[in-house]
Fold this sequence. Notes:
This protein is an alpha/beta fold. It has 2 domains: 2-189 and 369-385, Glycogen Phosphorylase B (Rossmann fold); 198-358, Rossmann fold (3-Layer(aba) Sandwich), CATH 3.40.50. It has helices spanning 10-29, 53-59, 75-92, 105-116, 136-147, 156-164, 173-178, 190-205, 208-211, 227-230, 233-248, 259-268, 271-279, 291-300, 309-317, 332-336, 347-359, 373-385, and strands at residues 2-7, 37-42, 66-67, 97-101, 121-124, 150-153, 168-169, 183-186, 219-223, 252-256, 283-286, 303-306, 322-324, 340-342. Helix 7 links the parallel strand 7 (168-169) and strand 8. The longest helix is centred in the N-terminal third of the chain and has 20 residues, at 10-29. It is globular, with a radius of gyration of 21 Å. It binds uridine-diphosphate-N-acetylglucosamine. Uridine-diphosphate-N-acetylglucosamine is lined by residues 9-11, 45-48, 51, 72, 103-105, 136-137, 225, 259-260, 263, 308.
Amino acid sequence: MRLLTIIGARPQIIKAAAFSRAVAKWNVTHNIESQVQEVILHTGQHYDDNMSAVFFRELGIPEPDINLHVGSGSHGTQTARMIEGIEQVLTESHFEGVVLYGDTNSTLAGAVAASKIHVPIFHIEAGLRSWNMAMPEEINRIVCDSLSSVLFTPTETGRQNLLHAGYVETDSKVHFHNTKGQYVVLSGDVMYDNSSFFATMAEQKSDIMSRLNLESGQFVLATIHRPANTDSADNLTSIFRALLDIANTGRKVVIPLHPRTHKLLPDKLSAELLQYISSNPNIYIIPPASFFDMICLEKHASIVMTDSGGVQKEAFFFATPTVILRPETEWVEIVNAGAGILADADYNRIITAYQELMNKPIHFPPLFGDAHAADFILEKIVEYLN
Ligand code: UD1
């Protein structure tokens, strides 16, 4: 059985590590006729070493078999280049299925290309909704869900979203065999698989804590990359003013900066604010962190502040509370559990949320599966295709 895994953006490379491990494990325990051959296609959406190659090296993921090198561009340009390249790969060689992750432009392109030539799509991280159509990711995930054969959803909320939208739930082989329709399967979260699998290794291999001279529980970790924040001078200013004021209380603030944010900072912040930030000894602006460094930072931070979906979740896995720099989140379980507070890009709400999370006891119930989601997903894919 041949599967094409499509990745392109940083978080997908990380998610794919869990699936590749599941494939390797499967092949060790199955005879040659039942083996799964995974071919990895990288669209090239992320191309900087610290946004892409570092993760392959660190996580031991097989190098991509194909790289389309699409690079940056407007949504239309970037997605069109990807569709063209993926279509070519799928027509030149036979694949039983395509595996897609999350909600990026690479996911969208994979879904459009595969569906038009009738290759079944397996969507990992299906069913999530922000209910905010201004987010490119919301459009991407809705389109991908609607074109997928099996929608693997990580959470109960994702499952409910899909059932309300009229998708049929099953994890039964009999059901898959009846028709080749579209099915919802609650699978747990492959990111939780990875965080559990790599946590100890990350502690051993990462030297980020000593390199930055950080003490556990004594610093804030912040990441900002969403267009709604990076493209708005008001939003970016409010977030950085809040981070500056926290740094001025004596707390260190570590900011691994996404290339998008790095490029826009001088345009969007006043020269004065930029100067305060760059001269503040408690603010550490660093390049995008490797996965092991990021895991260590998330685990040891007192608070995470982020507009990233993945970072919200990883903070939760490591029992670190999060100030969410967005008006809404797909990971509502984290907010409902009291471990995250939505603060948008509002200075006052950020500071209040920070103070609240620093001062109250917080629980982190198990919400994201059993750390074996990828094994379960692979089993279901094989069932579907047999
Ligand atoms: C993308 C995903 C987002 C995900 C994020 C993780 C979409 C629509 N968005 O956002 O859901 O959370 O990845 O990081 O797919 N750039 C570089 N080097 C790189 C990559 C990007 O310099 O290696 C710069 C370019 O200027 C580019 C900009 O960052 O134009 C944005 O990159 P893009 O891939 O379009 O979206 P992200 O913001 O990374």
